[in-house]
């Protein structure tokens, strides 16, 4: 799986501290990259449902594959939560391994994010596909607390082969706008500081360079409890909401105590 497992983590860390990013060549075997590319291009074509990009996932969230388009963003995204069976075992294996490398670069325990802390902090894995012509993501910065929000990106399609323009950019620590996709070849990995301004310029194609842009990475987040999540509350059918609210009232009136939540008293 790893072609270059012994690269200099100290050099990568120093580059991120100095410039904001570092491209490491030949990290993953090229054959594995193309295996993932083939699987995910087919999956996004056949499985994606239309839904907004998921922010604020909850503990116990199901895996899913979505397509989202708005004025600012257009992408397919697969969400692979570590408590579920993987959407694709090979992708899960590589994503977890790369996240452990990222953690070592950040200088935290390599399994940070795999086991969820009391504050809800954890990671999930995602593959994002920016389709030809329309694919894009707005300029943004990733900040939520004082942790180093450093990311890895494993490209699964490539500038000059699968798309001819646009792609991922970073504004580095010197104020330069860097088109990172132009720097990476198959098997290479980008490590960068997500607190820096970054985004995805609209994907351009030309001739046979027409597959679009695809990448795999992990997303650090704070998972919410299901009872705190407004998105889940909004999706609950009204009759189920009323039934749940009336159940404890009925229990008090009938003298039932400690009823199991799956028992049907209505």
Could you give a quick summary of the protein structure above?
With 266 residues, the protein is of the alpha+beta class. It is 26% helix and 27% strand. It has five helices and twelve strands.
Fold and architecture overview:
By secondary structure, the chain is an alpha+beta fold. The protein folds into 2 domains: 9-226, q2cbj1_9rhob like domain (Jelly Rolls, Sandwich), CATH 2.60.120; 236-266, no CATH class. It is built from 5 helices and 12 strands. An 8-stranded mixed sheet has the order 1-10-7-12-5-4-3-2, with helices on one face. Mean pLDDT is 87; it is low at 259-266.
Mean pLDDT over the full residue set: 87
CATH architecture of the largest domain: Sandwich
Briefly note the structural class of the backbone: alpha+beta
Compute the number of strand runs.
12
Q: How large, in whole angstroms, is the Cα Rg?
A: 21 Å
Main beta sheet strand tally, sense and closure: 8 strands, mixed
| N- to C-terminal distance | 54 Å
Range of strand content: 25-35%
What level of helicity do the residues show?
25-40%
User: Rough shape?
Assistant: globular
Please count the helical segments: 5
> Which residues sit in consecutive blocks of at least 5 with pLDDT less than 50?
259-266
* The level-1 CATH class of the largest domain: Mainly Beta
CATH topology of the largest domain: Jelly Rolls
Q: For the largest beta sheet, what order do the strands appear in spatially?
A: 1-10-7-12-5-4-3-2
CATH H level of the largest domain: which superfamily? q2cbj1_9rhob like domain
Topology as a string of helices (H) and strands (E): HEHEEEHEEEEEEEEHH
Number of domains: 2
